């Protein structure tokens, strides 16, 4: 067992950026893994991704031709199992994506491989893999190891590692995916309805509210506050799920990315991985939270340990008209 | 017709907590327990199916955990679940999500439900692994992060939507019985009624052990796991500069930050 196998991800004819982040993770621990970095792309037309995946440090890109056009968990599980059998890697890196969640635990359970999900760090300690992930709502870091496991599957968090820009010259090989009987059928993709006049990705200044607002009747005062300070009103997922604000205001993995935001005020938001996926890149984040240990404070530039209602009222009073 | 819903008692750390002396977990005295948020949505989805079918569906909740978990199971019974199963003995201690899944699969083999719902993930450790691993042990079709479901009990096919990243959904047709991991927002979970809470007290919670389910000692606990916690620690403080003072002083600074951004 040696080397690292990276499974790249694509959707709707596009390579997902997390693929290149995972390659960077793999290249980073390549010396410790004492073996090659192999990147596999499973698709109906895998060749078209080969060049983008050929970055510095990659030894081989395997274009796996699959009869299945769109993602199917059974097909991916069987294909990655075949790749593992062929390459015997000590580490298999998958993105911690919605699609990986649909087959990685099944793959590991079936073949008895080591498994860690949502890891944000991997390292080898005296030859044995150690993965670090979050625990208790991301308030602690948890190191896990895998006694007796010579191959470990790790689903790795997005937006942690910078992709490698430099091109490399790996060998590009081909493989056919094993045939799997279909138990499910992808029908179509559906895009969420547009958000009308709300433009989270375009806004430079966003004031977002989370579950700290407590109840629906409290939302209005923050809508007014956002208006007073000239910010677009955003929210975390529970606020949108409850229907207190439209989905188009939701920031995060399954919502909008605050792509152009320069100032983000997070009020009563704990800082889940999925919320941060949409805003942690923002240069100026101010977090207001009663819990000094909330993980939002780990990525914020400024922190106010305090009550959002009290701070909100002060801000309304002090903000120059 | 039967739907099995897996539910987890999650733990959150108290304001000031201590790490256990072996360094591998938080001292249990500092943990606050609750029902995992996601499981409210999967229970509600099962209840909706039951009600639409005119009550011919039995909704069974199952949890792997010690006696304290009965509190969460009672909450589910109060919301309308018909009965509850809890599996535990000391051998389960140290189980990772895969070992937990093996136990749930053993329960499912006995119960032979038409569908099994799990939450996408649990809010404590966010493994997002138990449901899909359970499907693997059962050999059942499965779908992760289900945000919309069209299913008639007893039907051989379900149509569903999976929520992908960035506001995209995938519509999928899946053979049943299947394991689905249910996402937040798929429905609006109900609150328990007073009547429901009263009735829950009379509903059964069956307590089983892994060995009664035919599992060997090596199937559960650390031996049945694919990973092991080596160490837990509080991460180094982030970069946040804390703005101290009275609320008025804190906000004065916040106003400055906003005005700096606006170039005032
Ligand atoms: C596949 C998937 C996709 C997801 N996508 C998203 C997404 O796109 N966006 C998203 O946001 N979430 C998403 N989630 C959900 C995410 O995991 C969290 O559940 C969610 O972000 C929590 O929202 P929150 O921070 O508002 O609530 P909580 O985690 O409940 O935090 C509330 C915070 O408010 C604080 N608070 C309470 N009262 C006050 C007060 N009076 N003053 C100040 N602070 C107070 C508390 O200390 C706490 O920190 C996703 C989850 C999954 C599994
Ligand atoms: N101990 C447990 N008992 C019953 N169900 C569980 C248990 N742990 C996890 N689950 C189920 O698996 C889902 C995802 O949890 P996890 O894989 O721990 O993130 C939960 O929402 C539950 O439905």
CATH superfamily of chain B: HUPs
Largest sheet of chain B: 9 strands, mixed
Q: How much is the average pLDDT of chain B?
A: 96
Give the low-confidence spans of chain B: none
Q: From the 3D coordinates, which CATH architecture of chain B would you assign?
A: 3-Layer(aba) Sandwich
Kindly report the spatial arrangement of strands forming the biggest sheet of chain B.
9-8-7-10-6-1-4-5-11
Protein model, in words:
The complex is a heterodimer of chains A (321) and B (264). Chain A has 2 domains: 4-176, 3-Layer(aba) Sandwich (Rossmann fold); 205-317, Rossmann fold. Chain A has 11 helices and 17 strands. Chain A has helices spanning 18-28, 30-33, 50-53, 73-87, 98-101, 104-111, 219-229, 237-241, 273-276, 296-299, 308-318; strands spanning 4-7, 10-11, 14-15, 37-43, 60-65, 91-95, 114-125, 128-135, 140-145, 152-156, 171-176, 184-191, 205-209, 232-235, 263-267, 284-289, 302-305. In chain A, the strands form 3 sheets. A 9-stranded mixed beta sheet of chain A has the order 9-8-7-10-6-1-4-5-11, sandwiched between helices. In chain A, helix 9 (273-276) links the parallel strand 15 and strand 16. Chain A is elongated, with a radius of gyration of 22 Å. The mean pLDDT of chain A is 96. Chain B is of the alpha/beta class and 264 residues long. Chain B contains 6 helices and 13 strands. In chain B, a hairpin with a 6-residue loop joins strand 7 (142-150) and strand 8. The N and C termini of chain B lie far apart (66 Å). The interface between A and B is large, with 98 and 79 residues. The complex binds flavin-adenine dinucleotide (FAD) and adenosine monophosphate. Adenosine monophosphate binds next to helix 1, strand 4, helix 3, strand 6 and helix 4 of chain B.
């Amino acid at each position: 067992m040696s080397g690292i196998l990276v499974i790249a991800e694509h959707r709707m004819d596009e390579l997902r950026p997390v693929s290149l982040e995972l390659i960077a993770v793999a290249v980073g621990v390549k010396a410790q893994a004492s073996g090659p970095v192999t990147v596999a792309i499973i698709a109906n037309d895998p060749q078209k991704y080969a060049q983008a995946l050929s970055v510095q440090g990659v030894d081989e890109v395997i274009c796996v031709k699959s009869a299945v056009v769109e993602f199917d968990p059974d097909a991916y599980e069987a294909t990655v199992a075949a790749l593992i059998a062929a390459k015997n890697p000590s580490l298999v890196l998958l993105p911690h994506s919605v699609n990986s969640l649909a087959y990685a635990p099944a793959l590991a359970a079936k073949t008895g491989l080591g498994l860690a999900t949502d890891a944000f760090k991997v390292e080898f300690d005296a030859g044995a893999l150690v993965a670090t992930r979050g625990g208790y709502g991301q308030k602690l870091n948890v190191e896990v190891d895998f006694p007796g496991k010579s191959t470990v599957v790790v689903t790795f968090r997005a937006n942690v590692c910078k992709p490698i820009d430099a091109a490399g010259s790996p060998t590009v090989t081909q493989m056919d995916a094993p045939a799997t009987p279909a138990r499910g059928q992808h029908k179509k993709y559906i895009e969420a309805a547009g958000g009308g006049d709300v433009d989270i990705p375009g806004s430079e200044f966003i004031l977002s509210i989370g579950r700290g607002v407590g109840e629906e009747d409290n939302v209005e005062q923050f809508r007014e506050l956002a208006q007073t300070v000239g910010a677009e009103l955003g929210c975390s997922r529970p606020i949108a799920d409850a229907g207190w604000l439209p989905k188009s205001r939701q920031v995060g993995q399954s919502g909008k990315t605050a792509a152009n935001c320069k100032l983000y005020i997070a009020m009563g938001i704990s800082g889940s991985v999925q919320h941060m996926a949409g805003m942690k890149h923002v240069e100026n984040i101010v977090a207001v939270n009663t819990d000094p240990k909330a993980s939002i404070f780990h990525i914020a530039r400024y922190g106010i340990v305090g009550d959002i209602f009290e701070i909100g009222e002060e801000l309304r009073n002090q903000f120059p008209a | 017709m039967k739907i099995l819903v897996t539910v987890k008692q999650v733990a959150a750390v108290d304001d000031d907590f201590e790490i256990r002396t072996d360094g591998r977990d938080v001292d249990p005295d500092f943990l606050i327990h609750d029902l995992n948020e996601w499981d409210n949505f999967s229970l509600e989805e099962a209840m909706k199916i039951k009600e639409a079918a005119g009550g011919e569906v039995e909704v069974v909740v199952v949890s792997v955990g010690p006696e304290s978990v009965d509190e969460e199971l009672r909450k589910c019974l109060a919301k309308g679940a018909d009965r509850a199963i809890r599996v535990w003995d000391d051998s389960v201690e140290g189980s990772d999500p895969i070992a937990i899944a093996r136990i749930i699969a053993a329960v499912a083999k006995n119960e032979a439900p038409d569908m099994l719902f799990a939450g996408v993930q649990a809010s404590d450790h966010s493994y997002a692994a138990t449901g899909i691993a359970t499907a693997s042990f059962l050999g059942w079709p499965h779908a992760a992060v289900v945000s919309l479901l069209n299913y008639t009990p007893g039907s051989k096919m379900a149509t569903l939507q999976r929520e992908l990243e960035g506001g995209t959904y995938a519509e999928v047709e899946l053979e049943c019985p299947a394991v689905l991991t249910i996402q937040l927002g798929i429905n609006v979970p109900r609150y328990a009624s007073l009547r429901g809470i009263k009735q829950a007290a009379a509903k059964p919670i069956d307590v089983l052990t892994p060995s009664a389910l035919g599992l060997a000692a090596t199937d559960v606990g650390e031996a049945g796991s694919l990973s092991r916690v080596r160490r837990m620690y509080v991460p180094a403080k982030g970069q946040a500069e804390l703005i101290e003072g009275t609320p008025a002083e804190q906000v004065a600074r916040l106003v400055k930050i906003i005005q700096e951004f606006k170039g005032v």
